[in-house]
Specification:
Number of strands: 22
Strand order of the largest sheet: 4-5-6-7
Order of helices and strands: EEEEEEEEEEEEEEEEEEEEEE
Strand content: over 45%
Low-confidence stretches: none
Helix content: under 10%
Shape: globular
Number of helices: 0
Mean pLDDT: 91
């Protein structure tokens, strides 16, 4: 909604992370969520807010209707990450329960083989529309557009430290065991940054330069195409 900002934070003297709304030049805690331990805030293209609750699903908030009209989804489940793909579908990762996606009426569940791991992140490949899922113990999983099957990748590397996509359509990955930074060329992984330490963050500047933050090893700068 124009003129209104949202954020997660803690009230003074409280350990509970709740939702704040900024209007009339001040931040105000949303009373409806005052006792909920909120962990993440994601805004979809239609303006809806998806807010994850520690160990208890997530809330869908229509800013026009207000937080008091929030809908509670996936109650009792630990939602680890939320994203929206290019078709407008909302996906979420779960702890030891694979992934789920919202068809507008019900949640569909996929990836039952990830029972021993958490879903850490979900990204979309801009070139092919494939979805990539990073896990805490089972490497990567990939789902091609229109397909229900998931393909396992880097399973022997276990925990995936970092997964993202850049504007040139490349998908980038760094694992806990292999470290460094690699991108997917459509057939295999290509090493772009050799390091025994994993990458924890990647920022792309307007000219395509990548700034890679390493665990315990500072920053690396990667020029476009490298």
């Amino acid at each position: 909604k124009p003129g209104i900002f949202w954020a997660l934070g803690k009230n003074s003297g409280s350990d509970i992370s709740t939702l704040f709304e900024y209007k009339d030049n001040a931040w105000k805690a949303v009373e409806a969520f005052a006792k909920k331990q909120l962990t993440n805030l994601y805004r979809t293209t239609n303006g809806r807010l998806w807010i994850t609750i520690n160990g208890n699903g997530m809330l869908e908030v229509d800013p026009e209707a207000g937080p008091d009209k929030a809908v509670h989804h996936l109650q009792g489940m630990n939602v680890t990450t939320v994203m929206q793909d290019s078709k407008g579908i909302v996906w979420c990762g779960l702890w030891a329960n694979g992934v789920a996606w919202w068809d507008g009426t019900t949640w569909k569940r996929e990836l039952p083989k990830t029972k021993r791991s958490a879903i850490l992140s979900i990204v979309e490949d801009a070139k092919t529309g494939s979805l990539w899922v990073a896990t805490s113990a089972d490497g990567l999983w990939r789902r091609s557009p229109g397909k229900m099957e998931w393909t396992s990748d880097l399973a022997d590397e276990g925990a995936i430290s970092f997964l993202t996509a850049t504007s040139d359509g490349r998908v980038w990955v760094s694992s806990q065991s292999a470290g460094g930074l690699r991108y997917w060329n459509g057939d295999s992984w290509v090493a772009s940054l050799e390091s025994p330490l994993p990458i924890s963050a990647l920022v792309e500047t307007p000219d395509g330069t990548l700034w890679a933050g390493s665990v315990l090893d500072g920053l690396y700068v990667l020029k476009r195409g490298k």
